Amino acid sequence: MRAGFELNFSNTLMRIFDPLSPQPRLPENFVWGVATSSFQIEGAATADGKGPSIWDTFCRVPGAIADGSDGQIACDHYKLWEEDLDLIAGLGVDAYRFSLSWPRIRPTGRGAWNEKGLDFYERLVDGLLERGIKPYLTLNHWDLPDALQASGGWANRDTVHRFVEYANAVDKRMGSRIAAITTHNEPWVMAVLGYETGIFAPGIKSRAAAAQASHHLLLSHGLALQSLREQGCKAKLGIVLNLSPVQPASETAADKAQAVLEDGKLLRWYMDPLFKASYPDDVLRYLGADAPVVCAGDLQTIATPMDFLGVNYYSRSVVSADGPWDVHKSGLEVTDMGWEVYPEGLTELLVRMHRDYPVPPMYVTENGGAFKDQYVNGRVHDADRVRYIAQHIQAVADAIEQGVNMEGYMVWSLLDNFEWASGYAKRFGIVHVDYETQRRTLKDSALWYRSFLQHQHAESLKQESLALGA
Ligand code: FCB
């Protein structure tokens, strides 16, 4: 990893990499973006006919959210969306990754459609296009209609079909204007944190329910892809997984075996069905009687070819057979979430996926860090976040150099927002949000990203005119 680092905002072409070595040059059509999700920023929890989501309900469980907060107002993006789109455009990104609130569009998940919800997202999409930004839309970033949870949520096979109906309705209304549609964001998180450990909505604690939920999420992804294509959907279609390289805490046989199993549960449990139409044997053995019910044809459906694969990367995972690994042991920098800063893990992960699976072009659909920001005199000097993002962009460039087909990179997140069970205490934004006034302020990381992108685009133009002149 190149270490050199220098921040100087009077100089528009800031160097963040070793000044002696060139900045990484990503491919010509590489897509640069920023990302958010509906529940984390929109607020307007009951406005214009929106139904409750499982997160609205979960936030009311005493102790579920660290600071006792909820998504009622969040960043008030439902009202401030135009201002936010101007902010995005000002950064000079190519794409905006956002999600739709399913209960805003179909309040009970299976009954009437809410035209006002569809109208909101249509305005958002048109607003992006007017500003020259490609919409990257996620259908399910965790905020399932609460009414569907009453009949089991993702543990119930019926939800699969409700999801396909929802996907079709969104495509009918705006699909022709969308660059890419992601079915689900991070099925592992929804299944394991939502149904097994219960630390996320809907707060269930059952390994069997979690395994069944993961299968239904994957199945609904495959069925939605087939249905959207039959409908003539023009957008690129894919899914987003949260992945990490899993490393043993030591060289003991027990730690190594534990790491293999954890890799199975996190990565192979999703990648194998998506790309090999099978579940990994070791994880099936581990699940025993809790393994999901899989009907004939399900695995072939799940393996429906995708146009892209999104990877959300934050850190590596270190596992030990003796229980939780102490993250401070390694001496690496640790973010405010308690996650190690480990950019080389991103290169390792992408190269491994390229080697082990017939993957389509990949995106880093989320990457970023929560740090203890200080807002002083209208500025946030978040050098730690700048360094984090720059090092991970370098890690993507390193993977490309090793032959991996990468199409884009998106920072998590555009705005400080509702960080799920951590509430508002953890700030991931490159734009600071004052929750009292809803004022947005570009942090140094946003200023840096903007300059970095200007440099990338200037280089692309230079290459193009060189090619034309040649
Ligand atoms: C990911 C989620 C995203 C955000 C980041 C920090 O798991 O997709 O919504 O919370 O983590």
Distance between the termini: 34 Å
Order of helices and strands: EHHHEHHEHHEHHEEHHHEEHEEEHEEEH
Major sheet summary line: 8 strands, parallel, barrel
Structural classification? alpha/beta
Poorly predicted runs:
1-15
Summarize the SSE layout with pairings.
Layout (H helix, E strand, L loop, with lengths): L30 E5 L2 H4 L12 H5 L18 H15 L3 E5 L2 H4 L9 H16 L3 E7 L5 H4 L8 H17 L5 E6 L1 H9 L11 H24 L5 E7 L3 E3 L4 H24 L4 H7 L10 H5 L5 E5 L4 E3 L24 H13 L5 E5 L8 E2 L2 E2 L2 H19 L4 E7 L18 E4 L4 E4 L1 H26 L1
Parallel strand pairs: 1-2, 1-12, 2-3, 3-4, 4-5, 5-7, 6-8, 7-9, 9-12
Antiparallel strand pairs: 10-11, 13-14
Bound molecules: beta-D-fucopyranose (FCB).
Give your account of this protein's structure.
By secondary structure, this protein is of the alpha/beta class. It is built from 15 helices and 14 strands. It has helices at residues 38-41, 54-58, 77-91, 102-105, 115-130, 146-149, 158-174, 187-195, 207-230, 253-276, 281-287, 298-302, 344-356, 383-401, 444-469, and strands spanning 31-35, 95-99, 134-140, 180-185, 236-242, 246-248, 308-312, 317-319, 362-366, 375-376, 379-380, 406-412, 431-434, 439-442. The strands form 4 sheets. It has an 8-stranded parallel beta barrel with strand order 1-2-3-4-5-7-9-12, surrounded by 6 helices. Strand 13 (431-434) and strand 14 (439-442) form a beta hairpin. Helix 3 packs parallel to helix 5, helix 8 runs antiparallel to helix 9 (207-230) and helix 13 (344-356) runs parallel beside helix 14. The two termini are 34 Å apart. Beta-D-fucopyranose binds next to loops.
